[in-house]
Write a structure and sequence with these properties.
Blueprint (H helix, E strand, L loop, with lengths): L10 H16 L5 E5 L6 E6 L6 E6 L3 H18 L5 E7 L4 H20 L1
Parallel strand pairs: 3-4
Antiparallel strand pairs: 1-2, 2-4
Helix pairs in contact: 2-3
Length: 118
């Protein structure tokens, strides 16, 4: 159960997170972390390990035409800087500024790193 999400949190996204949660229980090697919210001025960042040797970045935003390339560049720079070679990164932007996006991605990477150390 996910408590504390805003009322505009769509059922489809909730089902995806539930699916990820169930998948995580079945296969402990497939790690998924998320950080942020879908409030205005924020973003929800989800990261998942993948078995392919590539980085997949999916961005959804009402401002995708204006800032999509910039968000992709910011996220790719952070992943490369932290030596991440393969992952699925999903960014659901709601008008977050660059610093918020950066901090959310870094927080998700730190959570992922803590899981690997256990």
């Amino acid at each position: 159960m996910y408590i504390g999400y805003p009322k505009n949190f769509e059922r489809k996204e909730l089902l995806i997170l539930t699916h990820y949660n169930n998948k995580k229980k079945e296969n402990s090697q497939n790690k998924i972390n998320f950080c942020g919210s879908l409030e205005s001025g924020d973003c929800l960042v989800t990261i998942e390990e993948n078995k392919e040797d590539k980085i997949n970045i999916h961005i959804s935003s009402p401002f995708i035409r204006q800032f999509g390339k910039k968000i992709k560049k910011i996220s790719l720079d952070i992943l490369v800087k932290n030596n991440i070679n393969s992952c699925n990164l999903i960014i659901q932007d709601q008008g977050a500024i660059d610093e918020v996006i950066k901090s959310r991605i870094i927080t998700v990477l730190n959570k992922m790193e803590k899981i690997h150390k256990k």
